[in-house]
Amino acid sequence: MSLEKIINDAWENKDQVGPNSDKSLKDAINQVIADLDSGKSRVAEKINGEWVTHQHLKKAIMLSFRVYENDILSGPYSVWRDRQNLLKGKTAGWTKEEFEKAGFRMVPNSPVRKGSFIGKDAVLMPCYVNIGAWIGAKTMMDTFSRAGSCCQIGENCHISAGSGIGGVLEPAQALPTIIEDNVFVGAMSEVVEGIIVGEGSVLSMGMYIGQSTKIVDRKTGKITYGKIPPYSVVVPGSLPDKNNSAAPSLYCAVIIKQVDEKTRSKTSVNDLLRE
């Protein structure tokens, strides 16, 4: 029986799943998490130009919280409590050789959970990477940035200090938040709720984008939701109430132009910081 079928069958009876569930289910869940961890699998990928969610992988992550009980881990300055299979991080017990093989740089105090993938030459400043997340090669997760459960961050991206890329673990069919290749996300920004930021885009400092955020093309006036077109430069803005001039304006994201050489020179990744 395939991993996908084992997971989907268990999902249909998830209320009955628990620590005493059949060993084959635990083995399937462990294999899924191992495959996510190694990069063999990823929760979402682009197929024929469209992003597709592999639902059974998200289901496996959620089911793992039913089949494993909590345990504690004692450290030098605290004690932590979490599910047994996830209590120790991705790199717990790694040797110098294992780090060299993985090829990314990870500074102290960067919690990276098991079941997340980090590409070669990525740089992890003190940040947080949750289970199911994918961080592409040469991407920098800057200080206090966050990669939520199952989010997909492409290659050569810069997620600036204090910014959060929201995870979408549930519902299983929902597309996770996606940052395509060569994207710059400015400091203290939040991109959540399955938003897609197209390749090469630049988001200004302090952007907040969710599914209900109006995305306004300044040149055409067109309003869209849910996706930033590739190579867009986006800044915070506001829209007045057309029906009530006395009403307060509402927040929106404004596409002010397409990325040009001047923009790219200010936001491109620096190879000096990579391996």
Summarize the structure.
With 275 residues, the chain is of the alpha/beta class. Helices cover 19% and strands 27% of the residues. The chain has five helices and 25 strands.
Q: Please, could you describe this protein's structure?
A:
The protein is of the alpha/beta class and 275 residues long. It folds into two domains: 3-83, Orthogonal Bundle (Tetrahydrodipicolinate-N-succinyltransferase, Chain A, domain 1); 96-259, UDP N-Acetylglucosamine Acyltransferase, domain 1 (3 Solenoid), CATH 2.160.10.10. It is 19% helix and 27% strand. It has helices spanning 3-12, 23-38, 55-67, 96-102, 261-267, and strands at 44-47, 50-53, 70-74, 79-83, 105-106, 117-118, 123-124, 128-129, 134-135, 140-141, 146-147, 152-153, 158-159, 164-165, 178-179, 184-185, 190-191, 196-197, 202-203, 208-209, 215-217, 223-224, 227-228, 232-239, 250-258. The strands form five sheets. Strands 5-7-10-13-16-19-24-25-21-22 form a ten-stranded mixed β-sheet, with no helix packed on it. Strand 21 and strand 22 (223-224) form a beta hairpin. It is globular, with a radius of gyration of 20 Å.
